[in-house]
Amino acid sequence: MFVSEALALSSAVCIALSSMFISELNGRVPLMRLARWQVTAGFAITAGVATITGGWATLGLWQVGNLAASGVFGIALASTTYFAAIYTAGPRLTALLFSLTSPFALIMGYLAFGETISATQAVGVALILAGIVIAIGVRRRRPPAMIPIADAEPIESVPASGPSPSLLGISLGVLTAFGQALGSLLARPAMASGVDPFAAMAVRSSLAVLFFWALLALPKIRRELTAFRKADLSIAVTAAFFGTALGMSLLMAALRTGNVGIVSTLSSMTPVVILPMVWLRSGQMPRVHAWCGAGLAIVGTALISIA
Fold first, then answer.
1. Whole-prediction pTM value?
2. What is the mean pLDDT of residues 268-284?
């Protein structure tokens, strides 16, 4: 296997593992607090690695501008909706909805650069949508209580106020895919120019760090009623290491030298990779329609990317 393909597949595994850690914090850590912890830890890790390896030297003014804009959509927006989707819909469904990143990127490329959509790519979009409909449309069993990594009571599903949790979770997952696609589109020219992946992720995360900490000026955000627990912070930092720091940096590294289509396909393996993780964690094997829906989404992504 070529290096870029291995990096892309490793990215999918890391992002899936990160989402499993994040799901452990459901009902224990408020969304905005989790976002602050995640982006701050991700920035600290990637900035530290970039400093040690000399990655900052690969950045120019225009690359910083592109990556900063990418971070607004791909980190500040997409990370918030990503965490919220995991809290609301669970890690498996969130990973599946993340597959919409490929068709969103295809549409954006058509609108921004006039790229044409082939018949094969259109079939790929249809397969992704069909896979999501199959996975969501079939009634699912109530998932068992997740036993936290930390010493605490089992976490039951927490119904969200307002809209139905499933509809809200789907909406958040779709918005995450949109933000990620737009962020990747903005970052692509900078990565193609040879920017160090850890320096790129540090720049992408920097504005998000300022944004989420600035939100503490709002009284509603400051009134976070849950108590602080060191164990929760440890889980959040671990999730940030595997997701924002390692997973996304591996994806940036894969885009430097690899074929964009193949890299995008392998990095979209998250919906399949996460199924055995959910099985091991909950002790309940996902139903057949979950595997079928994830498989269709991966095939659809492959058709879009390789065509």
1. 0.73
2. 77
